[in-house]
Amino acid sequence: MLVKLLAYSKARKGLIERRLKKLEEANLAMLHDSIYEKCSHYIEQGFISVDDLDNLEYLFSGYSGLGGNGTGETLYNKVKELPIRKIGG
Questions:
Q1: In b/e form, how buried is each residue of 8-39, taking b as 16+ CB within 10 angstroms?
Q2: Residue 86: is it exposed, middle or buried by C-beta count within 10 angstroms (0-12/13-18/19+)?
Q3: Of 12, 27, 33, 48, which is the most buried if we count CB atoms within 10 A?
Q4: Per residue in 9-41, pLDDT tens?
Q5: What is the SS3 assignment for 48?
Q6: Residue 86 — very low, low, confident or very high, per pLDDT cuts 50/70/90?
């Protein structure tokens, strides 16, 4: 009985670990998509507001913390070089 319980526990742990990995991958993909869209908009616009930059930094922190890099990081760095302007002012 104990052997079966241990085998079940090990299988369950493996399933949970695989699902967690897939959730991390999905979260990374959503963050990448959001960063890509926002950065493309700001680059086309030619500037960014302080609030938008703060929000983008928050998104990028999660993205890079999950191992994201490449295109998202390149775009993020380009946006950080944009002039900062007040929206509507």
A1: eeeeeeeeeeeeeeeeeeeebeebbebbeebb
A2: exposed
A3: 48
A4: 888 899 999 999 999 999 999 999 999 999 999
A5: strand
A6: confident
* Amino acid letter, residue 79: V
Residue whose structure tokens are 């104990």: 2
Distance between the two ends of the chain, CA-based, in angstroms? 72
By three-state DSSP, how is residue 75 classified? Answer: helix
Q: Judging by beta carbons within 10 Å of its beta carbon (0-12, 13-18, 19+), is residue 60 exposed, middle or buried?
A: buried
DSSP 47: -
Round to whole Å and give the CA distance between 67 and 12. 26
Prediction pTM value: 0.83
